[in-house]
Sequence to fold (227 residues):
Amino acid sequence: QKTLERRCFSSATVLVAEPGVDLNRFSPDRKLSMNRKSFGLDEGHFVLGMVTRIRESRRLDIVLAAVNTLAKEFPQLRLLLVGRGRKGAVESLVERPAREMKIDDRIVLPGYCEEDRLVAAYHSMDVLAYPMPGTDKSCRTVREAMASGLPVIAPRIGFLPELIEDHATGRLTAEKGVELTGILKDFIRNETKLREMGRRALETAKQRFAPSLQAERTLSFYCKLLK
Fold:
């Protein structure tokens, strides 16, 4: 919308085609052979998830700091960090800081996950943290999380405010994520709110990300132009 306003394009002559997500693949109703136990997690854990390239620019320090702050009050809190980085990145950016904070027993590092193991990872989470977008400006990770029925906590930058509805499908924070600790505390204490946001995130995914819906809208748009 901002681009249309800056370039003075008429919204009637522009179609916004969002990247699609395989909703059936990520559906929270899908039965998989893998579950939380395959990641060393229990049903009683509250799982904060991340799916990211492990590098300094992704601001993993924000998430580790929040886990550190909440660790004593919520012993059930775990961080499931899915991803990989260059040689030494996991040690320097995750394992060493976690040891220094004495929260290394709260961090689960399954490495890079793909296919059904990635889906199982999403299904093992209660909420996704997305402290900083990567090179994919369409925020595919956020879309996959929403298609998995997860609320997302992300900064109010770039395209994210158009993707996440604050207090409905997730929470938007300032860029430095100082609100993350309070938001997580609220989610842990209020399971009803957490599940309702997850339900709305899934409904949004169904309404916006289905490839078949995008095909229908594209065809309808060309028909309108031809007329």
